[in-house]
Amino acid sequence: MNDLSRIPGETPAWTTEAVEALYALPFNDLIYQAASVHRAHFDPNTVQLSTLLSVKTGGCSEDCGYCAQSARYDTGLKRERLLAVDEVVAAARAAKESGATRFCMGAAWRGPKDQDLETVAAMVRAVKDLGLETCVTLGMLKPGQAERLKAAGLDYYNHNLDTGSDYYGEVVTTHRHADRLDTLAQVRAAGIHVCCGGIIGMGESRRVRAQLIAELASLDPQPESVPINLLVKIPGTPMAARDDLDPLEFVRTVACARITMPRAHVRLSAGRRELGEAVQALCFLAGANSIFYGDKLLTTGNAEVEADRQLFAKLGLKPESTEGRRCAGAG
Ligand code: SAM
Ligand code: DTB
Ligand code: SF4
User: Fold this and answer.
1) Could you tell me where the beta strands, DSSP code E, fall in the chain?
2) Using CA atoms, how far apart are residues 122 and 330, in angstroms rounded to an integer?
3) Which residues fall within 8 angstroms of residue 71, CB to CB, at 6 or more apart?
4) Inter-residue contact 143 to 171 (CB < 8 Å)
5) I want to staple 268 with a disulfide (CB 3.0 to 4.6 A). Which of 132, 136, 164, 272 is the partner?
6) Atom of ligand 3 nearest to the CA of 175
């Protein structure tokens, strides 16, 4: 089941039970196994840097129970129109100067209207022209839209499974887990790399976390990027008062993602600042090799760039260059 020689297209499905068995290992054994898989596929001291920008903020029709941007909850967030292309280019240029290699543009939509997609396609072209990898997350796609994004030069589409399929209905009711799979299939068919992960700490059981990892690892081909988000509790949302997750359970989740998806970039995403330096260091040991980098996520704060530089110096980590990765041949 954890044969390191698996090749894309021949991925055996991971079962929830098999991932639960990983979670149940003694912590040191789990981390050792994850670190070994990490070293077999990547330079363990290199971390890929992606910077986020919300290009259309707030007012979303969907009811995702964790989200600051749903119009259904009073989160105090100010709605904003779709940004202009030059505003996005300025932010992307700054991200590149800080050392990011990928620029991820997020929109608070159920899915894009064709007219808005044209503007996003222009953003993708312009960001790509700066020499950055491009990523967008726009919600559910309709037939033909993924092809238009691909033609604009899109490298990655982020669309998370978010939680195990058994728990999905507890988190969102305005779309279904199957809708997420449908958009992911369209992204793949258009030849765009898949960025797909989830959120933990939403009150789900360990079994649900194991199901999420198994369902991500069973996507065929597996996602090239896997963001692991820790719930950021947004006042006004139904999840504002969820209990804190044990940080070691977050580390275990990272390790399970690394073991089951050996070639993926596993990204420490939302909630990273709240983990603190020592837990982040454990996550890097457990196989995380990507972060969201920049002082802001979409609507909430992220670890400060200066703090990340100091952490990298303390741990001897270096940022990944796009060139280095091409040589390594990983996504
Ligand atoms: N509307 C699009 C969608 O739902 O795919 C794109 C934007 S949405 C904000 C992107 C992802 O951010 C979500 O799928 C979720 O995994 C993550 N996210 C959003 N709010 C979060 C929160 N409060 N805590 C942790 N992760 C969050
Ligand atoms: C992902 O998995 N996490 C990012 C990105 N993909 C789009 C978003 C995190 C959002 C955190 C809450 C906020 O800032 O609104
Ligand atoms: Fe938030 Fe995306 Fe859900 Fe809209 S679809 S509420 S932006 S997570």
Assistant:
1) 46-56, 102-107, 133-137, 156-158, 193-195, 198-200, 225-230, 265-268, 290-292, 318-319
2) 27
3) 58, 59, 60, 61
4) no
5) 272
6) 5
Strand blocks (E) in 147-285:
156-158, 193-195, 198-200, 225-230, 265-268
pLDDT digits (tens, 9 = 90+) for 234-258: 999 999 999 999 999 999 999 999 9
For ligand 1, what atom is nearest to the CA of residue 197? 16
Alpha carbon separation from 86 to 38, 122, 154, 157, 177 (Å, rounded): 39, 10, 18, 21, 35
- The full set of domain ranges for the chain reads 12-317
Beta carbons within 10 angstroms of residue 150's beta carbon:
18
Per-residue pLDDT tens digits for 18-68: 999 999 999 999 999 999 999 999 999 999 999 999 999 999 999 999 999
Torsion 126-182-212-220 (CA) sign: negative
Q: Hunting for tokens 């238009």 — which residue is that? A: 148
Single-letter code of the amino acid located at 305: V
Cβ of residue 239 lying under 6 Å from some atom of ligand 3: no
For the cut 90, the answer to whether the pLDDT of residue 310 exceeds it is: yes
Is residue 123 lining ligand 2, measured as CB closer than 6 Å? Answer: no
Query: Is 60 a catalytic site residue?
Result: yes
CATH dotted code for 12-317? 3.20.20.70
The CB of 105 under 6 Å from ligand 1? The reply is: no
Residue with CA nearest ligand 1 atom 19: 67
User: Mapping DSSP to helix (H, G, I), strand (E, B) and coil, where does residue 213 land?
Assistant: helix
The pTM assigned to this predicted structure is 0.95
Name residue 267's beta-bridge partners: 227, 290
* Half-sphere CA count of 298, side-chain side, radius 13 A: 25
In this structure, what token pair is assigned to residue 273? 């600042």
